[in-house]
Amino acid sequence: MKVLVVSDTHRKDENLRYVIGQQKPIDMLIHLGDAEGSEMFIPDWVGPGCRMEMILGNNDFFSLLDKEREIVLGRHRVLLTHGHYYGVSIGPEGLADEARSRGCDVAMFGHTHKPYLNTIGDVTVLNPGSLSYPRQEGRRPSYMIITVDRNGDLQYDQKYL
Predict the structure, then answer these.
(1) Residue 11 three-state SS
(2) What are the residue boundaries of the structural domains of the chain, listed by start?
């Protein structure tokens, strides 16, 4: 199973459309917030049969998306959140604690516009970065591909444009 993880596209969708075209076929797209209305169009870009998991960001003022969501990916329970409610700009430790308290062993967030992948205790925490307004050194637009193998394990591949 191939999963495309993105965040913070802020309705500047050229890079998102490019990445979808380059990575197709994908089985699931996870958008971790701040699509700013593009969530209505993304399903058409990925095509039928692609599972969509999109959550609300701090700039999604008029969206009806969920604030956060818990999903199962392979043999893992995953917490999806934009991250601003957990202070991720200061650090991801609070988010890892929240995920752990919910029985999740993976937490995905956006908000900082910086790619991140680390294990905090027994929780894998990741941020794909931003395809539109990257803030890390070098400021390269970024996203992540997660491959779920036949055993239900996850392989993470940070990608840059």
Answers:
(1) coil
(2) 2-160
**Percent helix, strand, coil in the chain (nearest 5)?**
20, 35, 45
Strands 142-148 and 154-160 come out as antiparallel
Residue pair 60/34 in contact (Cβ under 8 Å)? The answer is yes
pLDDT tens digit at each of 161 positions of the chain: 999 999 999 999 999 999 999 999 999 999 999 999 999 999 999 999 999 999 999 999 999 999 999 999 999 999 999 999 999 999 999 999 999 999 999 999 999 999 999 999 999 999 999 999 999 999 999 999 999 999 999 999 999 99
Q: Give the CA distances from residue 12 to residues 9, 18, 20, 23, in Å, rounded to whole numbers and listed in that order.
A: 6, 12, 14, 19
* Separation CA 76–CA 105 (nearest Å): 6
What backbone phi and psi angles, to 5 degrees, belong to 94? -65, -40
The CATH code for residues 2-160 is 3.60.21.10
State the residue for tokens 């917030």. 33
SS3 letters across 61-112? CCCCCECEEEEEECCEEEEEECCHHHCCCCCCHHHHHHHHHCCCCEEECCCC
